[in-house]
Design brief:
Helices cover 39% and strands 14% of the residues. By secondary structure, it is of the alpha/beta class. The protein has one domain: Spore Coat Polysaccharide Biosynthesis Protein SpsA, Chain A. The strands form 3 sheets. The protein has a 4-stranded mixed sheet, with helices on both faces. A two-stranded antiparallel ribbon has the order 1-2. The radius of gyration is 16 Å and the shape is globular. About 6% of the residues have low confidence.
Length: 192
């Protein structure tokens, strides 16, 4: 909710629904989905539609929120899933096949962490999608590692620690980082 470029963006209206609801509904098409948030308004939007929310503390990244929830689940005896997926709340056009492909590529490559195409300061040929897959142990190691200077500088959590990660070639899905991005997504949804 405290985005510097677009305050309140998870609740911005897109074709009659808050953006976070679009993301949640699209993730549900893949499988069971938990929304991890410190925000009461986001929680209300999801729970009022029958969704499941886990409240978290305030963190520097979505991955840190996911790690908190995963640790809580393990503490209370839930089975440790082989892969934990983090879909950022600003990609309302995410498709179930994007999630599936990311998981499959991660499993086949044997990597601990996977991301869709990503733009990082030293690699401008890829676009950050905002879907990550982790093994539980790597996710907890990530959360225990302090933010790196590059992560702070570029606001890109993938730069926190050196992890062997690769890229799943998934189709570009417009994320919403600015009001201009919001207009692009609205047009895409209206055409669908």
């Amino acid at each position: 909710m405290d985005s510097k470029r677009f305050p309140g963006k998870p609740l911005v209206d897109i074709c009659g629904k808050p953006m976070i609801v679009h993301v949640w509904e699209n993730c549900l098409r893949y499988g069971p989905t938990v929304v991890a948030t410190p925000d009461d308004e986001i929680a209300e939007e999801i729970t009022s539609r029958g969704g499941f929310v886990e409240f978290t503390g305030v963190h520097s990244s979505g991955t840190d929120r996911v790690a908190e929830v995963a640790a809580r689940y393990k503490k209370f005896g839930f089975l440790e899933p082989p892969v934990i997926i983090n879909v950022q709340g600003d990609i309302p056009l995410i498709k179930p096949e994007d999630i599936y492909l990311t998981i499959q590529v991660m499993k086949e490559a044997g990597t601990a962490y996977y991301n869709g195409p990503v733009t990082v300061p030293f690699c401008r040929s890829r676009i950050h999608i905002g879907i990550y897959a982790y093994r539980y142990d790597i996710l907890q190691k990530f959360a225990a590692t302090p933010q790196s200077p590059d992560e702070k500088k570029y606001s890109l959590e993938q730069l926190r620690m050196p992890i062997n990660f690769g890229f799943a070639e998934i189709p570009f899905r417009q994320s919403v980082d600015t009001p201009a991005d919001l207009e692009i997504v609205k047009c895409q949804l209206q055409r669908a």
